[in-house]
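Comment thread on ticket #2218

A.B. wrote:
> Attaching the input chain for the structure job we discussed in standup.
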Amino acid sequence: MERKPISYPADYDNNKHLRREHRAGLILVWVLVALIAIAATVCSALSARGIGIARKACAGQQIISSLIPDGEKPGKLPEAVVPTPDTHETPAPTITPAPTVEPNPDFMDQAAQPFAESFETLPDVIDAVAPGVVGVVNWQTYEKTQRLVEWGSGSGFVITTDGYVLTNHHVIEGAQRITVNLTTGEQFEARLVGSDKTTDIAVLKIDAAGLTALPRGDSDRLRVGEFVFAIGDPVQSELSGSVTFGIISAKSRAINIEGFTNDYIQTDAAINLGNSGGPLINMDGFVVGMNSAKTVTAGYDAMGNAIAAEGIGFALPINHVWEIATQLITTGSVPKPGIGVTIKQTRAELRELAAEEGEEIRPYIDSVTANGPAATAGMQVGDVILALDGIEMNEMEQIVAYIREHTKIGQQIAFTIEREGQTMEIVVTVGDLNKMP
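C.D. wrote:
> Ran it. Output below, let me know if you need it in another format.
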């Protein structure tokens, strides 16, 4: 008996002689071509605008960071909004949510204990610490629709068994609701203990018990070349618990992000959007840093096009993070020594040209806060800073670090300045930036 050929859905169409599979494939190809074209257009536009060097790694918020002073940064990238499918309105202006947790001087009673035994393999370390890494979701309301939507997400890690969680300030900035997702799939409403924009550190509290708290290491003892790994929720929660591996590339990098200079650990462990706030961990399972930023641009070519950078991520040292977190938990705030000025300086690579054009290449006062300590002492815009307490200061970062790390509120600093060709000394009493407008 002659068999009739079996006709499948993917068989030839008698009219067009084209397989349906082939047709679907062509459609997919055209969609991909369109997406590539759109991506190329966007990349070209961003390059033309001179997109900056590093951006904070929080999905939902892409913020330019720079290795150069604020006044000389390239254009700023607009915030990346994550709206629901049926709404595209702009959100309300971002603000820092107010703390809702009372200070707790006894929080260390539930702090993590060091591991009893050392680990033999990397998977063993990951198994031990992964339950202590969490996802942090920032919820905000759209002005026109008044709908609460997932504005952005980042990572965090548990530091006490009763629910204290550390993350970056920029992860929760502007949040009207904060939720924390555990590796078990449980989701908790989080309350804000405190947040410090200057150091980009925030502390959350969830009502839970028996959590896996991660022990802190000593970031001062890190060595370049030491193995580390990062855990977090890159991109969004669909990739929660992702692990990336690398080394310590450098121990102390003074990086200016959004106008605030902090020292960072540099690592080549991949840090992506959404990794912000997650832990950087050594081979003994101790947290040595808080992943916070990455460099996406190594520089610009002769045509002004951005040159991509790879494997340059930054984490805040855990010793500094812990100091700030402890102040937030036990007192509710972080004292911020300051004198009420902004300082600028010509970039190092442009100083030769600036000198030829008669521009000032030393650090100088760009603005003075009205009624602040510097204004009260008589400091003026344009004053060139030569030394602090007799110590010569040639770089803006040196001055900022000296005031922040080596002075206390109420202490006096002797500034040696140059004004209209005259050298003079001005004594400024250090104030609290929290109390300055």
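A.B. wrote:
> Thanks. Noting for the ticket: The CA atoms of residues 234 and 274 lie 4 Å apart.
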